[in-house]
Amino acid sequence: MDRPPPDPAKLLEAWMEWERGETPPGRVMANLKTGGLRQLLEQMAVDVSEVEPSEPPSTEAWSPVV
């Protein structure tokens, strides 16, 4: 059975329903699974590994905002 590609907006909405307490955790996990969260994360991991910089960015200019 072919499934449509994951829709990040729908996955986020499923997550937000859980955060608002509208949907129990088990149902949310099922919705995320059938919504293609795994495929989305796998593709993101590939994308990140392809553009990973050769050296970490400098943190010298970074300062925390309090």
Keywords:
66 residues; mainly alpha; 3 helices; 56% helix
Could you describe the 3D structure shown?
The termini are far apart. The protein has 66 residues and is mainly α. The protein has a domain at 8-47. It has helices spanning 8-19, 25-34, 37-51. 56% of the residues lie in helices and 0% in strands. It has 3 helices and no strands.
Helix content: 55-70%
Which spans of ≥5 residues are poorly predicted at pLDDT below 50? none
Overall strand count: 0
The N- to C-terminal Cα distance equals 51 Å
* Radius of gyration from CA coordinates: 17 Å
Per the principal axes of the C-alpha atoms, what is the gross shape?
A: flat
Order of helices and strands, N to C?
A: HHH
Most strands sheet: none
Number of helices: 3
Helix vs. strand class:
mainly alpha
Mean pLDDT: 87
Strand content: under 5%
Brief sketch in words of this structure:
By secondary structure, the protein is an all-alpha fold. It is built from 3 helices and no strands. The N and C termini lie far apart (51 Å).
Produce the secondary structure layout.
Blueprint: H1 8-19, H2 25-34, H3 37-51
Helix pairs in contact: 1-2
